[in-house]
Amino acid sequence: MSDLDRLADLLGLEPHYHDIWGNRRETSAATKRALIAAMGLQAATDGEVADSLRTVERRSWSRPLPPVLVSGEGQGIGLEVALPAGLDEAALVWELTPEGGTAQGGRVAVRDLPVTDRTALDDTAYERRALGALLPVSLPIGYHRLDLHVEAAGGPGPSGSTTLIVAPERCVTVEEMVPAGRSWGIGLQVYSLRSEHDWGMGDFADLAGFAEVAGRLGAGLVGLNPLHALFPADPNHIGPYSPSSRQFLNILYIDPAAVPEFAGADDLQARIADPAFQTALASARQAELVDYPAVAALKLPLLEALHARFRSLSDDHPRKVAYAAFRQDMGEALDRHALFDALHEHFFRQDSAQWMWRSWPAAFQDPQSAEVADFAATHAGRVDFFAWAQFEADRQLGEAAARGRSAGLAMGFYRDLAVAVHPGGGSAWADPAMLVQGANVGAPPDQFNMNGQNWGLAPLSPLGLRESAYRPFIELLRANMRHAAALRIDHVMALQHLFWIPEDGSPGAYVAYPFHDLLRIVALESRRNRCVVIGEDLGTVPDGFRPALEQAGILSYRVLYFERTADGGFKSPAEYPAGSMATVSTHDLAPFKGFWTGRDLDWRKRLGLYPDDASRDKDHWDRGVDRWRLLQALSREGLRPDSYPTEDGDQPFRVELSAAVHAYLSRTPSRIVMVQIEDALADDEQPNLPGTVDQHPNWRRRLPRKLEELEADEELRHIVAPMTGIVPR
């Protein structure tokens, strides 16, 4: 094996993969060099590869302990210590501090630790010795710290520390959350909500009202699009799956009128009552699509004024006390995110070409530079505004969740965690060692996109994750489990591997992640936050992946359109796994009415997304066959409506057909069944059309009916009626 292959293997670059057609795709040498460089190691020449290989090999031997070790609850701690050879006469002194507990320690002669491996690097001999027998046989679940050092006759020897993570076997389950062991919910894009009092897009106040409606309808869950922080300085960047940070919230979801400081703010209420403001507000409310710049122009000045009122409160005011507690809880991550938002605003307003932080002056690209510290000091008020906005967004989201539960939601919200972040965002700037620069996340070619997909997102560094003892991943889970009863992990295969595409144009390749470590951490945080986990496992799923998710208690994500038998028919309800969440459609697919009428195919034709007429004609033919197959499936279950006298696929869409399809899903054993709001309202337009950016109004569509009209909507009640049998009330 060459040095390049050995280095690539140590870094987790998979040597090949099989595409969706079964073809074996080898990872080229050019791709290996490019992706190794993206990880921060030199690999342009054979000499650089050799040097980088020595660096990686030396790293695991030249420090006594790895940065982290993850084990299962009740298992022994299989830890080893790496030491220079020749320390048999020395003593190893150790101290173990359990999470929230009292430190305990001891010492042992190095010679009494069994040797498990030996090597020589740069003329220095090393030994690896088993250490696990020294530690308690069974640590409690949690995050623990081990420190050790060597005492030798010649003076102090090597020292090191590690984080020991002990995790439960399984995530919290739906059965543990609700007595019936099953639940159903309504999924929506929060921005799409309309109401009598909206600001041109749905926000957390509208979400609270929707959660109350869903609770009264008998739902146990409300599923949400990603609420991740975007770019306040540029409201034209609207993709929820391309965020600045996945740890914080989109502040445009704040309702200014629900901010406590708004009460009694006569000057702000007068500003809103001004005819010019009312005209702008009415225009935003009446728009067919969300006009994000218009919404930002309405909301942000009011939020700034409310922040000024907040700052004038006394330090012992309950709001100030709560804010201080929030900032302490969120820690440095919030400080850096708020600082990034202030810097991004500063440079973007100076020159739109400085949108990406890598185009800022060099000193400002480093969050620890003196120039950044000086900016933070001189713009402290602006930085505090962005931190306060996160505090208020979090408060309003929590209030919405509480109102939903009070109205009858048995579980609450389920949130959505995007697969990665924008490389120009706050997360990439705040922790550059954690996010890869020089490669993007994507997908290899498949039947949906023959050229593959480059999502333009920055992948997490597997090296950075381990070196940080998985701290960023843990914080990410905690942040997205706040105010949530369930968490959907988008493209959950990223726990095992991600498809990286080098920026230099080389072909992409899969990069492995510490799958079992990440699974265990997900289970630990699920239990601690009492949050069910759903894995979006659509697309090319690695062998053994779904069984591993099932063993960890992570629900599979099953979409009616894709659940097919070998002959192309629709699987019967009984064939769905119990450990799953079932849904008719998703935000990336046509809602059921659009599927039945071919609205999505019309869009593809209109936008020229078909490579040729034959592909277009085949899609239309296949859709007709699918309609026929679906009516056959409904017939087998005795669910085909009387208004559909035959199984002919050319019959028009009727609301009772959508109700029958949802009744079909309600018969599955799936622990959760979701109804997308577009399906509940018999809408035919999907929120996002993959493969488009501006050609299709992605992430801008508003619901056809207002919040105040939903509960009495007869069609909505007809479509969701079958769901009520899942959890009898």
Automatic annotation (TrEMBL):
Reactions that this protein is recorded to catalyse: Transfers a segment of a (1->4)-alpha-D-glucan to a new position in an acceptor, which may be glucose or a (1->4)-alpha-D-glucan
InterPro entries: GH, Glyco_hydro_77, MalQ_N
Gene Ontology biological process terms, A to Z: carbohydrate metabolic process
Keyword tags: Carbohydrate metabolism, Glycosyltransferase, Transferase
Keyword Glycosyltransferase attached: yes
One example GO MF annotation: 4-alpha-glucanotransferase activity
Boundaries of every MalQ N-terminal beta-sandwich domain copy: 65-168
Family: Belongs to the disproportionating enzyme family.
Record-given protein name: 4-alpha-glucanotransferase
Organism annotation: Azospirillum palustre
